[in-house]
Amino acid sequence: MKLLSDNLMTTYKRLPVSFLKGQGVWLSDKNKNQYLDALSGVAVNTLGHSHPRFVKAISDQIEKLIHVSNYYHIEEQSLLAKRITQLSNLSSVFFCNSGSEANEVAIKLARLHGHKLNIDQPNIIVMEKSFHGRTMATLSATGSRKVQAGFEPLMSGFIRVPFDDVDSVNVIAKKKNKVAAILVEPIQGEGGINISKDFEAYLSGLRKLCDENNWLLIFDEVQTGIGRTGKWFAHQYTSIKPDVMTLAKGLGSGIPIGACVVNDQASKLMTIGKHGSTFGGNPLAMVAGITTLKIVEEEGLLQNALKQGLVITNLIKKKFNKNNKIKSIRHMGLMIGIELNQECNTLVDIALKNKLLINVIGDSIIRLLPPLVINDDEAILLANKLITTMTEFFDEKE
């Protein structure tokens, strides 16, 4: 299948399909083939495709106003910021256009905090296998050589430690390194759906070290936020709060948006002229965020994420419970990773043939991020399609 991509830079290895229409968890190509979307545009399409309430809200806003400059008061910004701070119990928000941009704000806040502590070159502790974005600062913070390769010299100021290892952070604290913050994903997304062995203990341990050393605790919830795990934010499975939290992906249900959410202490670090965004916080994106949060709450999608995540993973575990080719199945809500003991990138092509959209990360981990609107029948169908796909893959390897 030849696609019209000759004039695009070759930054993606695209699959041979192009979609024209979507409805709920389904996408249709020009031949009216139906594909079950188990990826949601990589955790973006919280409400699936063409949710009627979302479409109406966006359409109505487009007719009124799409963009004005941040030189002026934007009422929709205040409304969305108020709701996010209510849900997070934090204080204020800066709006931008993506997760990378939100993490850039967080990194700048960490450096401002460090300078306030009279640290001339403040460092941020980051994790191995992390992913924070593809700008120069965020790819420098990211723990993937594949992402970083070719872009040297990387930015300095990051100290890397293993994920889920509070002791390694404590070692750095005792060495009196010039640290200003810890930046961590509560669950590593691109790194493999990595969940700490004791979620509460890990995040609480990091919080304690930050409190003891006057560091900022920054949670990158770009992929885990907005109900993906069954809570508004993944860290809410614990009793702690971050100083800074970054959001994007699912917040706008497909409309580009990012947010850096902070407590009172971190909020005071940013003053007029310290940061900005031309497109960030425009009325259209704000209405997308407001509407997404409203629908997630009113349609019970947090509870649905928990329910359907169990449906999908239980069916897969039941089918493959004696299969030694599967190392582990990890999930929290509708953030699901299935790790095999072998490279399995070809699974994506087999799944496409079976009209299922998934992806593989780290060469051996199947990632599922279906829309939060997925229903009982669709969750069962997703699991069955994946079981068929995996069975075909295993048969080919025999």
Report the span from N to C terminus: 29 Å
Shape-level CATH architecture of the largest domain = 3-Layer(aba) Sandwich
Q: Unreliable segments (pLDDT under 50, ≥5 consecutive)?
A: none
Shape: globular
Q: What's the rounded overall pLDDT mean?
A: 96
Q: How does the helix and strand content classify structurally? A: alpha/beta
- Superfamily at the CATH H level of the largest domain? Type I PLP-dependent aspartate aminotransferase-like (Major domain)
CATH C-level category of the largest domain? Alpha Beta
Number of helices: 13
User: How would you write the strand order of the largest sheet?
Assistant: 4-12-11-10-7-5-6
Radius of gyration: 21 Å
Fraction of helical residues: 25-40%
Tally of strands: 17
For the biggest sheet, the summary is: 7 strands, mixed
**Secondary-structure element order, as H and E?**
EEEHHHEHEHHEHEEEHEEEHHHEEHEEEH
Explain what this protein looks like in three dimensions:
- With 398 residues, the chain is of the alpha/beta class.
- It has two domains: 19-51 and 300-397, Aspartate Aminotransferase, domain 1; 54-298, 3-Layer(aba) Sandwich (Aspartate Aminotransferase, domain 2).
- Helix content is 38%, strand content 18%.
- The protein has helices at residues 40-43, 52-64, 75-88, 99-116, 136-141, 145-148, 166-174, 199-213, 264-267, 283-298, 301-319, 347-353, 376-397, and strands spanning 19-23, 26-29, 34-37, 92-96, 123-127, 158-161, 179-184, 187-188, 194-195, 216-220, 244-247, 258-262, 326-332, 335-340, 356-357, 359-361, 365-368.
- The strands form four sheets. It has a seven-stranded mixed beta sheet with strand order 4-12-11-10-7-5-6, sandwiched between helices. The protein has a four-stranded mixed beta sheet with strand order 1-2-3-15. The protein has a four-stranded antiparallel beta sheet with strand order 13-14-17-16, covered by helices on one side.
- Helix 3 packs parallel to helix 10.
- The chain is globular, with a radius of gyration of 21 Å.
- It starts with 18 loop residues before the first strand and ends with a helix.
- The mean pLDDT is 96.
